[in-house]
């Protein structure tokens, strides 16, 4: 065995971020053999290092091909979100879109944002007050934060108009209503009402709890200006299966079917993506991935 072959193999393994166990699984060699080869202590067949290198090259190519064939694809719920965002953009309206966690609301909003340079994306944070919301707008536009709330808001809106912003996308809007205080909720949402009144479209996107909070607030100066409201549902079993296949996992295997049955109550597409990622690291072993995800809850007991 030549040292340069071993050095190249070590560099490859390090670049791929693989453990000795991963290399053993991919190459079909024992962990002990891999450990000895990578440590330069193997005294067996000289061809082994080349066999491991070839196996890793084939594995890397397969991973790259998986990424290349992954299609840009949207569920019916995501298409519904897209349509509301498109209408808001076209009419410079004021819309609200809600839906359960894990259905791809943020993914869809980000995708829409990337395709429209004149759309600004704002992600809310828990505990934000009215002043924080205004400061977030100032920060997005690169404008100095000083003065009273009303002064800062006027400055933020002026900056949005001067920069040609047509629409503001407000993600995680449910975090604006976690304090449950009607006056505080109204003050925060009133910021976006003023942005809309200036001729800039606004779309608020969040969990279903945001809808509940808005209904609790009732008809007001703020909420009466909302002209579009839609609720996106969870993906169907067919859509989740398609998404899993798009991530490179066969949805017809026993483990994949188990994962798909668990997904709707555990974060839908976010759960499928996490499970698929772990499964790929384990040689497409979805059952083992589920054991890792649910080690404490027993969801895959006896599997």
Descriptive overview:
This protein has 14 helices and 5 strands. 56% of the residues lie in helices and 8% in strands. It is α/β, with parallel strands linked by helices and 303 residues long. The relative contact order is 0.11. A 5-stranded parallel beta sheet has the order 2-3-4-1-5, with helices on both faces.
Task: Classify the helix fraction into a percent range.
Answer: 55-70%
Strand content: 5-15%
The helix-strand sequence is HHHHHEHEHHEHEHEHHHH
Largest sheet: 5 strands, parallel
Strand numbers in spatial order across the main sheet: 2-3-4-1-5
Q: Count of helices?
A: 14
Supply the helix-strand structural class.
alpha/beta
Low-confidence stretches: none
Which term fits the overall shape?
A: elongated
Compute the gyration radius: what is it? 25 Å
Mean pLDDT: 87
Number of strands: 5
Alpha-carbon distance between the two ends: 43 Å
Salient structural properties:
elongated, 56% helix, 8% strand, alpha/beta, 303 residues
Summary of the model, kept short:
The chain is α/β, with parallel strands linked by helices and 303 residues long.
What's the SSE blueprint?
Blueprint: H1 3-16, H2 20-27, H3 31-38, H4 48-69, H5 76-91, E1 94-98, H6 105-115, E2 119-123, H7 130-140, H8 149-162, E3 167-171, H9 182-197, E4 201-206, H10 208-217, E5 228-231, H11 237-246, H12 254-262, H13 268-281, H14 286-293
Parallel strand pairs: 1-4, 1-5, 2-3, 3-4
Helix pairs in contact: 1-4, 2-3, 2-4, 5-6, 7-8, 7-9, 11-12, 12-14, 13-14
């Amino acid at each position: 065995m030549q040292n340069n072959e071993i050095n190249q193999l070590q560099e490859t393994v390090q670049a791929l971020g693989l453990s000795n166990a991963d290399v053993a699984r991919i190459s079909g060699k024992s962990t002990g053999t891999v450990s000895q080869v990578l440590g330069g202590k193997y005294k067996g067949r000289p061809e082994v290092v080349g066999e491991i290198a070839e196996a890793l090259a084939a594995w890397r190519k397969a991973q790259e091909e998986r990424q290349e064939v992954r299609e840009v694809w949207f569920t019916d719920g995501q298409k519904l979100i897209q349509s509301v965002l498109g209408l808001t953009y076209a009419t410079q309206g004021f819309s609200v879109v809600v839906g359960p966690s894990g259905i791809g609301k943020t993914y869809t909003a980000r995708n829409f944002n990337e395709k429209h340079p004149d759309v600004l994306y704002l992600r809310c944070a828990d505990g934000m007050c009215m002043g924080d919301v205004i400061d977030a707008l100032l920060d997005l536009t690169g404008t100095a934060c000083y003065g009273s709330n009303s002064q800062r808001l006027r400055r933020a809106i002026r900056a949005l108009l001067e920069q040609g912003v047509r629409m503001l996308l407000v993600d995680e809007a449910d975090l604006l209503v976690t304090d449950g205080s009607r006056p505080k909720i109204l003050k925060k949402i009133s910021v976006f009402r003023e942005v809309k009144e200036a001729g800039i479209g606004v779309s608020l996107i969040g969990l279903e709890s945001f809808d509940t909070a808005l209904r609790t607030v009732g008809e007001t100066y703020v909420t009466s200006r909302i002209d579009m409201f839609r609720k996106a549902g969870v993906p169907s079993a067919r859509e989740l299966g398609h998404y899993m296949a798009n991530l490179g996992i066969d949805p017809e295997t026993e483990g994949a079917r188990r994962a798909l049955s668990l997904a709707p109550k555990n974060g839908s597409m976010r759960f499928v993506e996490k499970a698929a990622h772990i499964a790929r690291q384990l040689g497409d072993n979805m059952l083992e991935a589920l054991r890792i995800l649910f080690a404490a809850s027993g969801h895959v007991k006896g599997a």
